[in-house]
Amino acid sequence: MLNLEELPTGQDIMALAASVVAQEFDAVIIGAGFSGMYQLLSLRDKLGLKARVLEAADGLGGTWYWNRYPGARCDSESHSYSYYFSKELLAEWNWTERYPEQPEILRYLNHVADRFDLRRDIQLNTRVKSARYDKAANRWTVTTEQGEIFQCTYFITAVGCLSSANVPKIDGLNDFGGDWYHTGQWPHEGVDFTGKRVGVVGTGSTGIQAIPVIAAQAKHLTVFQRTANYSIPARNAPLTEEFKRYAKEHANDIHVIMNSNTNAHPFYIKSRSVFDVSDDEREQIFEAAWAKGGLAFRAEFSDTLLDARANKVVADFIRRKIRAIVKDETTAELLADIDHPFAAKRPPVDSHYFETYNLPHVDLVNIRKHPIERITSSGIKTAEKVYPLDIIVFATGFDAMTGSLLKIDIEGRDGLRLKDAWHAGPRNYLGLQVPGFPNMFTVTGPGSPSVLCNMPPAIEHHVDWITNCIAHMREHGVRCIEADDQAAHSWVLEVNEAANSTLLPSATHSWYLGANVPGKPRVFMPYAGGFAKYRKIVEERTQAGYQGFSLST
Fold first, then answer.
1. Which of 126, 299, 302, 462 yields a CA-CA distance of 20 to 30 A from 268?
2. CATH value of 7-60+118-164+400-552 in 3.50.50.60, 1.10.286.20, 3.40.50.11540, 3.40.50.1700
3. Predicted confidence (pLDDT) per residue in 54-66, tens digit
4. Considering only CA atoms, which of 377, 346, 305, 378 is closest in space to residue 455?
């Protein structure tokens, strides 16, 4: 007979779970993308720490594990979208294209994991539920959705800036009789669009990449555009053997350029103004840059993002290109009706995006004029009409910069929760630490250049700083480090000042400000003062004894 008195109490179960499940580490890292993998390697192999990476997916790669939508590729050139911490890695890896596709980037990251034996310290299929700081013990307790418990001194979030999918809340979505997908949560087996009527909602960077590829397969494609966007042709092509040799032989020079310029790309922004040259010469410069393609189009003039008049000259050139490419006048005008300065939102690069609208089975719908009212069982209903669809693709982006962090219940010193600390927008210091959260580090967090840069150099800079900081702490007997509240307040003002000296905040519906997520505070999140200037600021404050941080022994 069952003796109820012998059953363990709730306290017994909790005590048993804590004693059995808790795993001790020096550092726990959340995320196995570019950031988390390099952070693991640095702490484990350089400092000899016991570190564990926790990753929600069943494979590594971070952003490049999830983003498998048609046409997904990097908009940084492949030779710059690489780790530069290892000369041997640079020498042995060969990219195949100017702008690598998602599968190739994922192969690269898996190669890195194998080469440096990272997999043994990466735990997949592990989604972090909460993280809490114990002041007395100076330890973080990290709990997963499966109930596992990890304790550590250093808690490092490497969750990515663009990894929390923003699925729009549209009435009737559950009633839709077809299939729907978000580009950031794409099925690994792919989607067959053959013979299907497809609707794509969104014309940001993701939509601009996906639309031409989907159009090549679908029976009919309807694009729902709220905000028209600029885009520069990528001119993607296989890399020549000559260029591959050049990139390897000049790796040091390329690295110096990326770390000493505004945007961490392998080119400098020219110092001339739009108005320093004649109209004819300027047109020739534009045409040559358009023919070359890629983000370097932005680098021809220094005042593109500083002077509204200069920006209009650049924007008008792109509008003329759109009208010249798109044959239907009404469609061309809708695509060229762009309401923000060029590059004030993330400027995409594309492969035949505007040309796609010349196809007879592709239509463009203006949902600013005729908003989506609901999704029906058979399609999308706007204020004007119903569009019958078999598949809906949401290319609606991400809850950028903060979304992935705030999905975790993070509690710092004295019970302060991150979602409360950031209720009015992200408030931190140098994009590296948040006041009230000792020994918690954020890789490319809000307040750093991050998404305004080519990401790998920004990631390497942050990981190296965190690694050196922890080494300094251990060498000098420092128990914990925490950003000062006043330093964070001053840094937020610096971030705002840097943004306001540019045209970036004028794109009021940009995800740089969180405007794509209903209810999210409107705060300009990345540091717009430039990567080189940011690196200098961080270095100066570090050399001044970690100015702006409190170090406790």
1. 462
2. 3.50.50.60
3. 999 999 999 899 8
4. 346
